[in-house]
Amino acid sequence: MTIWNVEQAIALTRAEEDQNIARLGDFVRIESVSMDPAKAPQVMQASQWLAKELGRIGFNNIRIHETDGHPIVTADWMQAEQGAPTVLIYGHVDVQPVEPVADWTVAPFDITMRDERLYGRGSTDDKGQVLMHLIALDALMRTGGGKLPCNVKLVVDAEEEIGSPSLLGWMKANPELVQADFAIVSDSPMYDYNVPSIGTSLRGIVNLEVRLRSAGGDVHAGQFGGAIPNAARSLARILVSLHDEDGRVAVPGFYEGVPDISAEEREGYEKLPFEEKAWLASIGATGTEGEAGFSTLERTWIRPTLEINGLFSGHTAEGTKAIVPATATAKISCRMVAGQNPEAIQKKVARHIVSLAPANVLCEVRELSIVPPAAIDHRMPAVQLAVDSLRAAFGTDVFLVRDGGAIPAVAHLKDHFAMDTLLMGFGCPDENKHGPDEWLALLHFRKGIEALLAYWPALAQSAGASTTTTEKTRISA
Amino acid sequence: MTIWNVEQAIALTRAEEDQNIARLGDFVRIESVSMDPAKAPQVMQASQWLAKELGRIGFNNIRIHETDGHPIVTADWMQAEQGAPTVLIYGHVDVQPVEPVADWTVAPFDITMRDERLYGRGSTDDKGQVLMHLIALDALMRTGGGKLPCNVKLVVDAEEEIGSPSLLGWMKANPELVQADFAIVSDSPMYDYNVPSIGTSLRGIVNLEVRLRSAGGDVHAGQFGGAIPNAARSLARILVSLHDEDGRVAVPGFYEGVPDISAEEREGYEKLPFEEKAWLASIGATGTEGEAGFSTLERTWIRPTLEINGLFSGHTAEGTKAIVPATATAKISCRMVAGQNPEAIQKKVARHIVSLAPANVLCEVRELSIVPPAAIDHRMPAVQLAVDSLRAAFGTDVFLVRDGGAIPAVAHLKDHFAMDTLLMGFGCPDENKHGPDEWLALLHFRKGIEALLAYWPALAQSAGASTTTTEKTRISA
């Protein structure tokens, strides 16, 4: 029976922190932008870099699976002691584009340390967090005689930033590489800087595109203006009708399936440290706006929403052009909460929009991609152990929080493999994910690794598979 | 006293029609797109081409005036017999861009004859119509012993398609090159194919741009969606509020100064041949929409309007992007009728839009260019003579009509030189002006020249300056 000396592993990762940051730099310098077809070779290169790291650490069955899109990397280590759980780690090596490059104050594809932050594209989303797992497992392996406390499978995507289009099909074709007792995903922010949290739900996404056509082409506003439908105005009228005066989405049946949140949970939200002014200031906004009767956290966590993501019609270049535009397009996305049927909601929104189209205007609604919502069973013991490990590493309270975002893999694991996911993210809410100057807090990088080092032995121990010498005082700090 | 033999001049232009069309081809092949700064040399080249033609015909004092923008060409012929009126011909050599080029079925910068139409950019707007004047004056000069029936000044703009920004300042600095008894502008469509008309008013234009900002930059729709203002939705709400349910513009004071149109004139509109279905079909529209209580002709001729010309916000590229857009822009133009104060209306619209901006959204309204409206004194004898000449050439009734469009020069001549303008256009309503496959009807090219050949001697004769041998039967056909 292996005795896991977590203190020794922590000391090792602290000693090697500079090397590990350098390793993150190597990873970030690979420009693996999945949205850019021209960068497909770099996406493959990032997958290969990861596979090589996994081999160095001692993982087995390392494979790079081809898909219709970018590759998926898998590996495992399945020699844990009897009774130890099997855990799937999911992450991704692809990143968002870096445009507008001029808005970065550091090199986008490199790691720059400034003010205790690690800046660079992918530093937090998700290369940095994937690497934190590898660093922790490597340290456990090296301080545990080449062994790990638990069986570990890895599935590392390279299409997460484009909605993981290949993932579900690949998972269904390779269930043996996916199935585990539960999954861990580190691809989200903590509740706040130095305030660790575990996510309990993710909102899904339903995308739609509305296209109106009122004439064969743009026409002269002098000759025809005032007498024919204006596609841009018709679109504005439709868009305005999608919410009522209380900020509720006015699509019939839109809130179907939204679970009642207990008064207890809602009261819990009120007790969370939340500085609305700072939250607004972080994005340069001056006030909130949303569904009446719900707080800001509730609006982003437990309520479905409908947002316009983009609009265009007629003359969009500099200067003036006296036309009545013949076409107008809106991009719309809805966030769904667990319990809702995204396909059904998508059809309802599409049908409703078509029903709002004014006379003499053609209205086409394209039903685009869907990411299902997901709720996690936060009563599972793995969650409580994670709370303990985070509390130990960060020395502060840990919150169970919901997340407004979406990760396709989490819904797929729940819906198709009955697997819950431990959402243990190490980012920060104002980390500029997807924007210029993306960053990961050095403190989170360090403490996150230490939480993971504590977590794996604790998980094995709770299953009766091994023991740990980690000082109890640290665990319960 | 010169005897003008109009029949001889007509025979000459008929005999030379192929050469004249070839000459139009030379003019159209010069890519004089005033909106494109890269094409400034071609705009200059078009002005030079015109100046050379004027010299060939026998005009005097030919000058190419530099401005802050594109040049203005002037010339005159002032040796008419005593008592002959002095007339200013205004036109322009610049053209609209040809994008999207793929939508053209002919070479945009060339003349292609198909189905009795002359296709090409500028064929009708305005190179073709400018050239028709030159062809008529050339034929009169050659059949009249090197003389013209009237004194003629020419002012040919190269910035009409960008709102003639240099014109008024240049006119004020050069009044002697402008002042005349009245002006003739051929830069508009006839009432219908083979249905000649004289314009009696032009609607002015007031341009504005609305920019909203709700955050420092686009933000993640999962993290913030549902809880902060969405700039695109805020814009849609403003735009929808600009009209009431009856299609009236809901800006306080918007209709100030709109003259009452006599019941007699409105009844006259009803008697005009107007096939609404064909009018709609010509632009691929299926129904009308506009201010309650007014017919389609009234909506485009005698009522001010407010149209959205363009919209953009957030993600406008292919695919989906789950953001809450931080900015949204609308381009708006209003049409004003003569009697209204465009500067005052612009301020009212701008102020009203700012007052509609929702909380926590910054709203900036830029007051852009203005083209004043213009009404013509259609009782002046020059108009009646034009009606006669058109009736003679086309052999059909001539209508006095209003025009929904705007020509800056016409308002400037009225407001600053007290000059009325004879709006004698030879285009067609469905001529694709500003769009792909712009065309001029060969019949209008031919008959328009013949109408001009009849017009000049008749004008001189009415002033007692000369006589004409034109058969009376043709004049009154």
From TrEMBL, chains A, B:
InterPro entries reported in the protein's UniProt record: Cyt/Met_Dipeptidase (IPR051458), Peptidase_M20 (IPR002933), Peptidase_M20_dimer (IPR011650)
Record key words, sorted: Hydrolase, Metal-binding, Protease
Peptidase M20 dimerisation domain sequence ranges: 202-358
GO biological process: proteolysis
Lineage: superkingdom: Bacteria
GO MF, any single term: peptidase activity
Entries under NCBIfam families matching the protein: PRK07907.1, PRK08201.1, PRK09104.1
PANTHER family membership: BETA-ALA-HIS DIPEPTIDASE (PTHR43270), SUCCINYL-DIAMINOPIMELATE DESUCCINYLASE (PTHR43270:SF12)
Name of the protein in question: Peptidase M20 dimerisation domain-containing protein
